[in-house]
């Protein structure tokens, strides 16, 4: 199990800090509480100032001393819950909290205010964290930031690849849309040309047949007139007239057949026109579907580009924080070297005095 699995509380608070000379300032302090069962570890630090780092390991024996000295009416388990609850009360501004710094000790004081004085609920003393442990924490945080940065870099690469894939899809769909649009226009032109050609051909046929029919009717009328004149002149021409009438009847039947053929052709043309209109409507519907898909992909592309920009900003911020932590680590190492040099000088002085 990792250390974070034992984390009972993790939060940042704006807390007034009082020094020995009564000077106070507000600091944004991070409070971490880890519950290891028989031990409660409390860490208080300023993330902007690595030297402000305090810690206390409160075990059962330490708690008993704290409970007796401050007259606490809870056991160790209840103390853990109440301590976290007081921090939440401080967040809700239902309780006050301040830090009192003296030498290498930091006292967390929970209190409320009445009309005449402050009422202290709990005072918890934290000791300054060892420099080596601070450096180890900074190393750990830097490693975590590097891991986070690596994950973000992978996410960024994945998002960039997704965007590129989507751009290719958009490009392919746009090309497909253009091809379909061109094909649609060509089909419409071909349909129009075919319709016009077919209608022109049928109109010409109808006109020709009507003209021929009129000519035949005119010829029939002429023959009738001639027959009428012959009937007045010759009574014995009745047989020929009957034959002529029979011929006319047969010709009329032929004309009726021609008219029925023209009607059938007209019905075929109407059916062809309905089919062509249905095909045009289907092509328009397909074009609308392609345009809707194109707009949806454009919207998805815009969202992915926004996500890519946000990931780039987060990576930039993490890189900046890693750079700052690296500078702090170098400064801490320099301080540790100076401290070791001073310690060596003091040791030499003590040895010299002892030998003298």
UniProtKB/TrEMBL annotation:
Pfam families: SAS-6_N (PF16531). Gene3D superfamilies: Spindle assembly abnormal protein 6, N-terminal domain. InterPro entries: SAS-6_N (IPR032396), SAS-6_N_sf (IPR038558). It comes from the Eukaryota. Residues 26-126 form the Spindle assembly abnormal protein 6 N-terminal domain. Residues 135-176, 210-342 form a coiled coil. Keywords: Coiled coil. This is Spindle assembly abnormal protein 6 N-terminal domain-containing protein.
